[in-house]
Amino acid sequence: MSWAPGRLAARWAAIAAVVVLWQVWARHQGSSFFPPPSAIADRMYQQWFSGPASHLFLTPDGVGNVLPSLGRIAAGLAIAVAVGGVAGVAIGRSVALSGYLDPLLQFARALPAVTLVPVFIALFRLGTEMEVATIAFGTVWPILLNTIDGARSVDPVQMETARAFRLPGWQRLTKLIIPATMPRFFAGLRLSVSLALVLMVFAELAGSSNGIGYEMNNAESSFDMTWVWATIVLLALLGNAFNLLEQAVEHRMLGWHRGARGRMP
Amino acid sequence: MSGVAGPADRNGSGWSIAGWARGVGGVAVFLLAAEAFGRAGVINRAVLPLASTVLARAAGLAVSGQFLADVAATIGAWALGLAIAVVVAVPAGVVLGSLPGVRAATRAMVEFLRPIPSVALIVLVGLILGPGLRMNVTLIVYAAIWPVLFNTIYGLDDVDPVARETLRAFGFGRFGVITLVDLPSASPFIATGIRLASSIAIILNISTGYLTGRISGNGIGAFIAEANTGAGNTSLVLAAALWAGLLGLAANAALVWGERRVLRWHHSYSLEPA
Amino acid sequence: MTGTAMLEITGLTHAFGPGAGHPALDGVTLTIGEGEMVSIVGPSGCGKSTLLRCVAGLIRPTGGSVVLRGAPVDAVPDGLAVVFQDYSRSLFPWLSVRDNVALPLRRTQQGRAQRQATALDALGTVGLTDIAQKYPWQLSGGMQQRVAIARALACDPVLLLMDEPFGSVDAQTREDLEDLILAVRQDSRMTILMVTHDIDESVYVGDRVIVLTPGPARVRADLRVDLPAPRDQIATKALPGFVHLRTEVSRLVRGQPGDAGGRGSAGGTGRSAPGDDSRDRNRSRAARASQA
Asked: Least packed by Cβ within 10 Å: which of A10, A147, A157, C178?
């Protein structure tokens, strides 16, 4: 992604054009279903971002809703990364285990996490635990399956080299297997990050007492379209921010991989 | 579907007899372990029922009129939404793929919209269109368009220029090249995009049904929402979720089967040695 | 009997890139009569393929003109067929052999059954009717190139262009394919323009050999091939006339001064005038007639 100012401007031209057209149309004709962007931006500011600097400019609403949602995503992803990463490597390196578990994993992966939200609601009651469980359960699959794939396909020549140099098992793991698995792991992580956002919203819409989804429910019951749109824009911003963050981390950790593949860092 | 290909399989399905046996064995072991775990009474059975209870419930659902109607409704909405999405996304992909200016201009917008979870739009579309089939299908179409669109564009990027030039050398124009070279060449990519869109479509349909409830018509989601209200109905919910998962697998298998038929050349091509 | 000019290339110039850019052709002029088999050779990268593409209408040259049967070539003209070097990328993997051969016929008014029949005929010409149902990737390289040739023949072209058609197959197969082209031409009297880097091939197959300079290309020499027909891989290549010619061509390609005069060549270096062609053709036709 190039950061040259001219290129950046050109890229955002289409978005800017849409926003401007929408604004003009909304002012002239408009529909209550599509409030003007200015109203949406204003609402976002009022709702979440007009707080004191000490609170990261967040309003009490922002602190009470946005932060918990983010926290749950973080917690769920952390569990998924830990479980998926460790189990992924273990299963990937064991031919027998992969053979037995593969179909089970494929089926479990096909099971939509959203269908289990009611199950989790029953298990954990409505609330944070339910949501974190949902996110963790849903996001573990891309990470797990991709990590298995990566661990399974460590270059046998490299493994042989490691053995020939009598590297102890532990070092083989940390210095060879784990780094070799990283690219696939990150491929799974990328999918999981966007999935986490989806599950957070869904779990909260299904039933929660705070959070972005909870706000959306309120907005829906009050037929407050501007509020609904504001939430959607917020989610778009968050989603993009997560992706950028994930890319930055990946970029940092996989520099060697890009070089080896002959790509420019 | 990484890691599914079993050892040396001739028919190209990715499975061998030994692979199947191991797989079934794995599922069986899991179920037995779950049953044993449940019977040991570690968790309250009202909260997490026995595996056998859930399976029994699942069998019951297979003959339940209401559930079958719900399954049919889900399949119907899925098929309709997916079809519309394909009909819109493939030509759009062709246009975007062939006009680099348009593609560059819309790229930032598309990248910005991509992370918006479709479930978040349930509320918006619900308010605008009101609950019902129209809302359901609209959401499915929106979500399913993206994978098909992107994969169409990637597929078109991948078309061999020699193939294009060959057809041009025989005097065919732009339209001829697109229909006779670009689309067939890109079809494996498009097929993958359709499979991705398919699973997204099912998930979205069930989510929408669950959140809006029976008022929006039949569907597995509505069924689960109703089932969830009763106490001790967790086994029912789990059974329904089981069927939903199987439905997803079946849909995927159906698409793979269709893909194999239409893209016979591609599958044998990539599996047979040169 | 004077030959009618099938193809007239005059002062053809082409440069890639903006401005002067990378010049590929620098004023190529030559005339090809109906029914001639012309080989074009030159050092690597001299612009042979660019020349062919300009003739085929795939590239619009930056200067000069190409006239096919009296009509200037603007876009891809009718009556033309091309065989590319890279058959694996030029044949379509999603079509069977027969469908591949029949594909260009879609532009004609023929119905599906007729297209398929024509395709089968063309496959018969190259001796491949029994694999009509197979897919290209199931065939060897030589067979794939035969299919590509059949595809070109199915269109019944007046001018067949071949861009290093046998460069990607092994030597044995190359000889078989060269003989195939000769046989096809024997039956149809098609005009064929073949670009090749193989000097032996250019002399063996052609009635004329055009030697290009290194890029940007011009015509360096236009040699008449005065060897008897039918050609034979072993007998013809043993003839002193063949050896002399291919040595001559070899020298010219490498930029060494050629032999002026000598048996089997006419005009030496430089461009041949239309009058010379007809005289030479008469001479070589007589020579051929005097053989068995």
From this structure: A157
